[in-house]
Amino acid sequence: MSSRPLDQVDLAILRQLQDDGRRSFTDIASALGLSVGTIRNRFTRLLEDGTLHVIGRADPHRVGFHAPANVHIAVRPPQLITAAAAQIADLPETSYVAIVSGPYDLEVDVMCRDLAHLTELVTERLPRIPGVADTHTSLILRVVKYAQPNLELLHPEAQGAAEGDADTTDPNPSP
């Protein structure tokens, strides 16, 4: 992770890439009024420090994963959570693994070819991982939204200004 805080130029480059991940350095430079060299150097630094990851995200159903699922996993004892998360992250079916709060300790997204593949993963392989005590599996029927974080949320004052002067009149004034 980066030890240097992101500045407005870094955030502007990231917003440009979120709009279109294939946008050229020349187009980004033109849109931001900066040199191509500046964009290239900033892009390289964002990659190297782990701030930016460039990936191609395929639609799971279109490429043949007909049983994508979200699996919540309880790990007991709690001292095994990190080790269990690491082992689960190494499984080829996992696309997302997070340690979470709440009744379960891990949230895991998996991509499986079909229900037989998902069943084998959830009933045979996951339970063999030390600490996996309970699972709750939800089949993903359709993805409605898949997005990256909205970087505008980091600066709510700028977002309000961008939306224009909103009416701040209390709709229920006190008498």
TrEMBL record:
Q: Name one GO cellular component term.
A: cytosol
- Residues annotated as region Disordered? 156-175
Cite the InterPro entries for this sequence.
ArsR-like_HTH, AsnC-type_HTH_dom, Dimeric_a/b-barrel, Tscrpt_reg_AsnC-like, Tscrpt_reg_AsnC/Lrp_C, WH-like_DNA-bd_sf, WH_DNA-bd_sf
Where the record annotates domain HTH asnC-type, the positions are 6-66
Gene3D superfamilies given in the database record = 3.30.70.920, Winged helix-like DNA-binding domain superfamily/Winged helix DNA-binding domain
Task: Give the molecular function GO annotations.
Answer: sequence-specific DNA binding
Alphabetically sorted, this entry's keywords are: DNA-binding, Transcription, Transcription regulation
What's the superkingdom here? Bacteria
Q: Name one GO biological process term.
A: response to amino acid
Q: SMART domains of this UniProt entry?
A: HTH_ASNC
- What is the protein's name according to its record? Transcriptional regulator, AsnC family
Organismal lineage:
Bacteria, Thermotogati, Deinococcota, Deinococci, Trueperales
